[in-house]
Amino acid sequence: MASGPTVNIRRDVDDKFYRYRMPLLTTKIEGKGNGIKTVVPNMSDVARALSRPPSYPTKFFGCELGAQTSFDEKNDRYIVNGAHDPNRLRELLDHFIEKFVLCKSCKNPETDLVILKSGRNEEIIRDCKACGERTDVDMRHKLTTFILKNPPVKSKKDRKRNAGTAAANVGGGNSPTHEAGDAEVADAADGAESDDELTKKIKAEAAELNTDAAITDEGWVADTSPEAVKQRMKALEGSMAAAVIGGDDEGSDEDVNSPYSQLGRWVEENRGDVEDLKTFAVDVYKKVQDLGIEKKHKAVLVLMQALFTDEAVTEIRNYLPLFKKMISSERHQKALLGGLERLVGLMQPSLVPVVPKLLMEFYQADILEEEVITQWGTHVSKKYVDKETSKRVRKASEPFLKWLEEAEDDEDEDDE
């Protein structure tokens, strides 16, 4: 981001610690008479902070002011015809952010614009990475026509994420709120590239994940007898204590009163009576805050073990905003993967075939990074479980790891 003064993306938020910032929009008047125009020298930097193409806010200014606009991306020049006061343009930028950036649900700017197609009709939605909600855009605004004709260009990771949607939804167990929409998003989110041969190939390969993931192993059949469930509960309690051994966090011992043990027990005691998992996720975060461990990576490790049942595939999307809020480093990501090993290895052996789906969900939500997953998948470790269990969990993840590697290779070849 270019140097210079910055402001909150939501300028109505008077908080100097507000994490979402953007450069203050600057303007420059050029020309005279009928040829006078307003140039926005830092439009690219402002748009980058908003995760939008710079042509979108520029065109929005033109729609609102009834003025012609022009874009010269090569020379980074974005122009609105006529002489316009900088404060007026900043006010219009606030309106653009409200209409085309902020999530309607949580008012967070971490959204992507997605184009959905239904027959001849097209709709633009905001897909929020923070809360997971998808909210509509007012299709009556003139800018929507421009966006439909000039859809957002997807990065490599975005293309893989859209292709991976097919893999995440194959074979049942989908979240009810996503079943209908994801099929459309997989086809439409790529915009003009929806018919690209590379995209088709990646989608086809991703769809095969479900078949490949059905790994069978007699040693992984879940015993649901009361005695077996009781034993696994004891194993969980032991692993909760193990989660805090040898670390630098508070309670780094086997004390049953450590904040991590308290968190694990609280989740287990309250999980069964929950009707709305999203609401429960909020309650969990409040509990984590009360214990003072919301920034600790070991809290992530405990939650991975305690939150999920054998219905993890349908539960996971309700918990993604919780994990996204808590995970802020590579160490947190590794703790999440360690928790996944313990969840599958100790508590829910029936989840082994869906390990690729769980990884896909965390990857699509930008919670797990490709490099971290790849390193984890290729290095067996005894840090969280025994070596044999570590091998088995990684073997189960192979279809996803293979897809990740081949999708990257194919996209690199396509870019050459």
If you had to describe this structure to a student in words, what would you say it looks like?
The chain is an alpha+beta fold and 416 residues long. It has 2 domains: 96 residues, 2-Layer Sandwich (Defensin A-like), CATH 3.30.30.170; 198 residues, Serine Threonine Protein Phosphatase 5, Tetratricopeptide repeat, CATH 1.25.40.180. Helix content is 51%, strand content 10%. The protein has 17 helices and 9 strands. The chain has a 4-stranded antiparallel beta sheet with strand order 3-4-6-5, with helices on one face. β7 and β8 form a beta hairpin. α5 runs parallel beside α7, α11 runs parallel beside α13 and α16 crosses α17. The chain is elongated, with a radius of gyration of 24 Å.
The residue fraction in helices comes out at 40-55%
Order of helix and strand elements from N to C terminus:
EEEEHHEEHEEEHHHHHHHHHHHHHH
How would you sum up the global shape? elongated
**Main sheet makeup:** 4 strands, antiparallel
The strands making up the biggest β-sheet line up spatially as 3-4-6-5
Residue ranges: pLDDT <50 for 5 or more in a row?
165-203, 205-224, 240-254
Strand content: 5-15%
Task: Tell me the CATH topology of the largest domain.
Answer: Serine Threonine Protein Phosphatase 5, Tetratricopeptide repeat
Q: Please report the total strand number as a whole number.
A: 9
Regarding quaternary structure, how should these chains be classified?
single chain
Query: What is the arithmetic mean of pLDDT?
Result: 78
Q: What is the C-level CATH assignment of the largest domain?
A: Mainly Alpha
CATH architecture descriptor name of the largest domain: Alpha Horseshoe
| Count of discrete alpha- or pi-helical segments spanning 4 or more residues | 17
Radius of gyration: 24 Å
**N→C terminal distance:** 28 Å
Pfam families: eIF-5_eIF-2B, W2
Organism: Macrolepiota fuliginosa MF-IS2
GO molecular function: eukaryotic initiation factor eIF2 binding; GDP-dissociation inhibitor activity; GTP binding; translation initiation factor activity
InterPro entries: ARM-type_fold, IF2/IF5, Transl_init_fac_IF2/IF5_dom, Transl_init_fac_IF2/IF5_N, Transl_init_fac_IF2/IF5_Zn-bd, W2_domain
